[in-house]
Design goal:
heterodimer; A: mainly alpha; ABC transporter involved in vitamin B12 uptake, BtuC; two-stranded antiparallel sheet; 76% helix; 1% strand; B: Rossmann fold; globular
Chain lengths: 366, 260
């Protein structure tokens, strides 16, 4: 975004350019909000029974205003409101939450290649959930579901990463990164072993969900918890947006600017880990959103977190809802797990974007 | 009345004492240098002058207040630091880096006011960075990055400026350029410097640190006396007066025993 601005020579020209950038940012936000609504509409409209756009919003409107639905629309209403709408909302929430967590984790460990899963939480969740399925014989009483097992696994991992990364009361970026990544490998090994050792086909397909994730099980009852936890995490990192800028630079600068980088990292770690743990317990480890969306966001608005966080929320929601639409449509009436498609589609797009950015930079002589 | 002074401070890094019993004081508007061999503790001492490192013993006083009794934000409103962190890896623009100087004044969602934006733009233009305001910080030269960090310190509006080897990795033009610009800001400045002749040319007073202690202090010609420098830096130093500027300067050779 900033590369196209002509050189300013005086402070008033700097202010003018600032103003232009802010206007462009607001327009971007408006356009993307429109795109999100469009994608959500498409997401609710297409499927085995396709429903016209106007009818989709008519039904949603009736529910929002609590107006009874006409009898001849009962069937359509069931499809839109009970099946597709929660799925779109869940996808939007998870996409937005993972994207913003990715942004914050990258700043926190000071590495643009990190993502929410760098902290190892999703491996812990997967291992926990898969363990419940694997040892299910003993636990089939229904005492503990895989989702609860996933959440417990994530919490145990959180505590483990945190205590291993802590030294003399300090949590450094580098240690967090290394401990998170190495623990991920160990836990993935454990999960893979259980998958390998399971011979029951039902168990295998249940395990698969905890390895790739998906939005298939979306229903309204899952939304409130997800919305609250992700909401709290997003408000927290948005509130800290200015500080995230400096945290990404270094602890010396942060201290010099009156921050306590260790405290902030601990707070971020706890808030983000809990949010990620809840998200993964509900939809499984949907990959790549938390890596690709922060990068795309920065390509559009630069690194300033006060702009990156809101924009990444929008882009994350658009990306996951959009990919889920494709996942349901590509091999309809069957569907591809969304976690598979986020990576397959994300990678080429990501590489294309980076190459294009570099080509632009070279042309502009930077 | 010194604006910042330390009373017998001792500083440790991971339990190892690095600076022991250092007392220094800097008056309002003074430009003071800290010099010493590698590993002598200059950077550590500088970190002890803001809240990067808490002294094991002794106190740091800013005006009348103990540095560690102030809130972190209040300390940052009084002391700005240009540290050696100038590789970022995230694509911030010059103006975004300078804007970070407002952090000690802003809570949470508080937005930049027009006054903030004006201050940022003026600070950039004061350091000749207006044409680069919307360029990538990481893509700039070392001198430009250093000037950006000084602009950030200006945006911080602190009366005291600490500089950690501000001329590191710069060519001679930018070494002089950066020091000239800092000098003309008229702030109280304390700089850890590697280059003794730059210190002698720009500082009003100099502290020489060796093995964590002050071994000399005073005006450049007093603190940087040839025999002391020869001993501390293990070289053969010869003092002379610069023919044009009239400043105290030094020439170096290996010591007699090493040469033989």
């Amino acid at each position: 975004m900033h590369t196209h601005i002509t050189a300013a020579t005086t402070s008033s020209e700097v202010l003018l350019n600032d103003q232009r950038l802010r206007r462009r940012y607001r327009v971007t936000i408006l356009i993307l909000t429109g795109v999100l609504f469009a994608i959500a509409t498409i997401g609710m409209s297409i499927g085995a029974v396709s429903v016209p756009f106007w009818q989709v919003w008519d039904i949603v409107w009736h529910h929002l205003r609590n107006i009874p639905i006409a009898d001849e629309l009962r069937g359509t209403d069931l499809i839109i409101w009970e099946i597709r709408a929660p799925r779109v909302v869940l996808g939007g929430l998870v996409g937005a939450g993972l994207a913003a967590s990715g942004v914050a984790v990258q700043a926190m460990v000071r590495n643009p290649l990190a993502d929410p899963y760098t902290l190892g939480i999703q491996s812990g969740a997967a291992a926990g959930a898969v363990a419940v399925i694997f040892f299910g014989g003993a636990l089939r009483s229904g005492l503990i579901s895989p989702a609860v097992g996933g959440f417990i696994g994530a919490l145990v991992t959180l505590l483990l990463v945190f205590s291993l990364a802590r030294q003399r009361g300090r949590v450094s970026s580098m240690r967090l990164l290394l401990v998170g990544i190495s623990l991920s490998y160990a836990l993935s090994g454990f999960t893979t072993f259980m998958q390998y050792a399971t011979h029951d086909p039902a168990g295998q397909s249940a395990i698969l969900f905890w390895i790739i994730g998906g939005l298939g099980g979306a229903e309204w009852s899952k939304i409130p918890l997800m919305a609250i936890v992700l909401g709290v995490a997003v408000v927290f990192i948005w509130y800290r947006a200015r500080q995230l800028n400096v945290l990404a630079i270094g602890d010396e600068s942060a201290t010099a600017l009156g921050m306590r980088p260790d405290h902030l990292r601990v707070q971020l770690f706890v808030v983000l880990s809990l949010a990620i743990a809840v998200a993964v317990s509900i939809v499984g480890p949907i990959g790549f959103v938390g890596l690709v969306v922060p990068h795309v966001t920065r390509l559009i608005v630069g690194a300033e977190h006060r702009r990156v966080i809101p924009l990444s929320l929008l882009l994350g929601a658009i990306y996951l809802v959009g990919v889920d639409v494709l996942a349901r449509w590509l091999i309809a009436p069957s569907e591809i797990p969304v976690g598979v498609l986020t990576a397959i589609l994300g990678t080429p797009f990501f590489v294309w974007l980076i190459r294009r950015r570099d080509a632009l930079a070279i042309r502009e002589g930077q | 009345m010194p604006i910042i002074h330390t009373q017998h401070i001792s500083l440790s890094l991971s339990g190892t004492p690095v600076v022991t019993d250092v007392s220094l004081e800097v008056g309002h508007g003074e430009f003071v240098g800290i010099v010493g061999p590698n590993g002598s503790g200059k950077t550590t001492l500088l970190r002890g002058l803001h809240r990067a490192l808490k002294p094991q013993a002794g106190a740091v006083l800013v005006g009348m207040d103990d540095l560690w009794q102030l809130s972190a934000n209040e300390a940052a409103r009084r002391i700005a630091v240009v540290s050696q962190e100038n590789q970022i890896g995230f694509d911030f623009t010059t103006s975004e880096v300078a804007a970070m100087g407002r952090i000690p004044y802003k809570q949470g969602f508080a937005r930049d006011s027009d006054a903030d934006r004006q201050l940022i733009a003026q600070s950039l233009s004061e350091l000749g960075l207006a044409p680069l305001a919307h360029r990538s910080f990481d893509a700039m030269s070392g001198g430009e990055r250093q000037r950006t960090l000084i602009a950030r310190a200006l945006v911080q509006q602190a009366p005291i400026l600490l500089l950690d080897e501000p001329t590191n990795h710069l060519d001679i033009h930018y070494q002089l350029d950066v020091l000239h610009r800092v000098h003309s800001l008229k702030l109280t400045t304390i700089a850890a410097l590697h280059d003794l002749n730059l210190a002698a040319a720009w500082c009003q007073r100099i502290y020489v640190i060796d093995r964590g202690q002050v071994v000399a202090s005073g005006a450049p010609h007093e603190a940087l006396a040839a025999d002391l420098i020869s001993r501390v830096f293990r070289v053969q130093a010869t003092a002379f007066t610069h023919p044009v500027s009239g400043k105290h300067q030094l020439l170096f050779d290996r010591t007699a025993e090493e040469a033989s």
